[in-house]
Amino acid sequence: MKIKCLYKQIALTITISALTIIPTTNDAQTTLPNQAQSTPIQQVELGRFAYETTKYPSSIHRQLAESKPNIAIENAIQQALQIPTEALINSRYMYNYVDLNGDGTQEVLAIVMGPYTSGTGGHTLLWIVPTKDTWQVSQVWSLVRTPIIITTKAINNRPYGARGILTYRSGGGATPSWVLLKNSHGEYDSVNNGTELMSLTGIEGTAIMADRLSLAQLQGRIHSFQVAN
Question: pTM for this structure?
Answer without folding.
Answer: 0.78
